[in-house]
Amino acid sequence: MSTVPPTSPPEQPEERPMTAVEATLWTIGFLVSAGIVYEGAKRYSPALAHDRGFGALSQLVVLGAIVALIRWVYFPKTPVKELLALAPGRWVFYPIAFLLGVAIQFPANGLYEAVLERWPAPPMTQEFAQSFVTLPLWRKVTAGVGLLVTTPLVEELFFRGALFGTLRRRHGNIAVVVMVSMLFALVHQLPQVMLPIGMVGAAIAFLRVASGSIWPGFVAHLGFNAVTFYVIATGLADSPEADEKMPVLWVIAGTVITAGLLALTDHLRPRDPSPTPPSEEPS
């Protein structure tokens, strides 16, 4: 009597880490795809050209496809929640993150102004503020939601979520923080903002390492953008004071507070337990 040999379970696709070159190509692909969607929509409605809310929404649509592709290519067996670090983490990181996002505005703006002295650039905030004033109320609301919620969500899910989680399988924390921060700076395209934005990205990436979650970084990102939105919505960006440099004391105070919050974040970061030495065997 012949026996049927047991069937082996189907082979699971292999999981592989992402290289820095691949991360750069994925970032370029994300930018190009979002740009194509955005430009295509503008053909049907030219008014969307200055709608921050729609721009962020188009990025969100592209993000879903990119994240699905990254998971399929690299980690088909890893749950999305784990890959993107969607677990909430400890609540104590959230107030620290919001304060960090607000405080780091001051050293970032101080650095930006120092760069502008050497390499002048168009005043982007003032241009956006002038177009913002002419928008109807509902468009102002969508622009606010785009700047405060959708844009931080998209960028955190892509940079500190998909890219960070995938690169971390191959590289250490420091290397991943540097790589993700550089890519985060590059996507902002204007050379004058890359250094300050890279600094902000590094601080948010450190939050990701310390908390094990993207959500504190999202809160920090929201806090950072909230300061910008307040300046735009209240008309400060288009006022004569906008041309004045930020007071040096504000930059110093913001830098000190930022450093203190990062030190506190590091203090609260879970540490791996030190390995206990094996007990000596009796002679």
Structure description:
The model is unreliable at 8-12 and 274-283 (pLDDT under 50). By secondary structure, the protein is mostly helical. It has helices at 20-44, 52-74, 80-83, 93-103, 105-118, 124-133, 137-167, 173-186, 191-211, 215-233, 248-268. It is globular and about 60 Å long. The longest helix has 31 residues, at 137-167.
Please give the number of β-strands.
0
Largest sheet: none
Please state the CA-atom Rg, rounded to the nearest Å.
22 Å
Structural class, please? mainly alpha
Secondary-structure element sequence?
HHHHHHHHHHH
* Quaternary state of the chains: single chain
Number of helices: 11
The global form is globular
C-alpha termini separation: 60 Å
Q: Which percent band covers the strand fraction?
A: under 5%
* Spans where pLDDT lies below 50 across 5 or more residues: 8-12, 274-283
Notable characteristics:
11 helices; 0% strand; 283 residues; disordered C terminus
Write the layout of secondary structure elements.
Blueprint: H1 20-44, H2 52-74, H3 80-83, H4 93-103, H5 105-118, H6 124-133, H7 137-167, H8 173-186, H9 191-211, H10 215-233, H11 248-268
Brief description of this entry?
The protein has 283 residues and is mainly α.
